[in-house]
Amino acid sequence: MRTRSRIAAVAAALLVLAGAPPAHAAHAAPAAVAAPAATEADAAPAADATSTEPADAAPATFTNPIKTRGPDPWLTYHDGYYYLATTTWNNTVTMRKARTLGGLRTAPDTLIFTLTRPNGAGTMWAPEFFLLNGPNGPRWYFYYTAGREPYNLGTQRIHVLESAGTDPMGPYAFKASMLDPAQDNTWELDPSILQLNGRLYLLGTFYNGSQPMFIRPLSNPWTAAGTRRILSTPTYPWETVGGAVNEGAEVLQRNGRTFIVYSASHCSTPDYKLGLLTWNGGDPLNSASWVKSPQPVFQRNNAAGVYGPGHNGFFTSPDGTEDWIVYHANSSASGGCDMNRSTRAQRFTWNADGTPNFGTPVGAGVALAGPSGEPAS
């Protein structure tokens, strides 16, 4: 979720949605350090035995959406499978997997964790998972936002789980609440990870009257090495439709260049869209090291019936030859910021100057070629 106005809008929507579950809405490895003793760890359920074999679809083509009721998607391809997690708006953490991108549409959601801790027991938003070096070797670190209890939106903070092995679906155990060591005085949302020059950073968004993005240095995947610094503030008119919002920071790296693609404006509007920051080589903790593009790089496509495209992620095709974007969007201008937002994906290209070219959002139901290297059916 985003901004105080967004939280208020969501709270109002919950009163209307009686009984319906509401909805919110790349890499040098860090040095391994000794893990602190586990404390008050949440129980980590084993993957549902009935959901371990995912459904597959024909690899030649697919259509969007690849998941209905799938806001804030995070998708990665690992060891022959696509893995997808999205906001649940409750105390469950789920993931689905499939051999093909199209197969995600019918793959079952598997419960991988249940939130029970007092300071993060409900309203799970914006999950992302990264394979990073931990004290026991590579592990998946699953970042998410949750509050003290369901729908206590002002208490939303960033937390992280750690996998027992190298399976993205776990099992997982609670690792840490990633509170700011000096400024834990407001909600923080939308965690993501930047790996740059051998250092690790947490990206997110918070409230300070508007909703800027922040960057915080980490000493390991779960521990802050300093307080947050403002990364980007919404200033352009296209960043302030329905509310001044910069959120959902996502890292994109290619040919030695680093970009951060982010979501701007309020998620409840059809004008939710993507902006671009380009790193100029300076200190990543200094906002002057990030140059903001003056125009959005991905936005509504009225002709195709796609509204509010945002909160994206990136993945590569199975053979590594193609770059893809995953994002959520609505099929109507009044779709809002709830669980009706669906997960969509499409290939993108690169401009001659080395910046990404995301094109325009493709409409639902349009047949698209699947990612290169997918297995034959």
What does this entry look like structurally?
With 377 residues, this protein is mainly β. The chain has a single domain (4-30, 41-369), classed as Glycosyl hydrolase domain, family 43 (Tachylectin-2, Chain A, 5 Propeller), CATH 2.115.10.20. Helices cover 3% and strands 40% of the residues. The chain has one helix and 23 strands. Strands 10, 11, 12, 13 and 14 form a five-stranded antiparallel β-sheet that branches. A four-stranded antiparallel β-sheet has the order 2-3-4-5, with no helix packed on it. Strand 16 and strand 17 (273-279) form a beta hairpin. The longest helix is centred in the first third of the chain and has 13 residues, at 4-16. It is globular, with a radius of gyration of 19 Å. The termini are far apart. Mean pLDDT is 88; it is low at 1-55.
In short:
This protein has 377 residues and is mainly β. It has one domain (4-30, 41-369): Glycosyl hydrolase domain, family 43 (Tachylectin-2, Chain A, 5 Propeller), CATH 2.115.10.20.
Percentage of residues assigned to helices: under 10%
Q: Name the CATH superfamily assignment.
A: Glycosyl hydrolase domain, family 43
Distance between the termini: 39 Å
CATH architecture: 5 Propeller
Number of domains: 1
Mean pLDDT, nearest integer?
Answer: 88
List keywords for this structure.
disordered N terminus; Tachylectin-2, Chain A; mainly beta; 1 helix; 23 strands; 5-stranded antiparallel beta sheet; 4-stranded antiparallel beta sheet; 377 residues
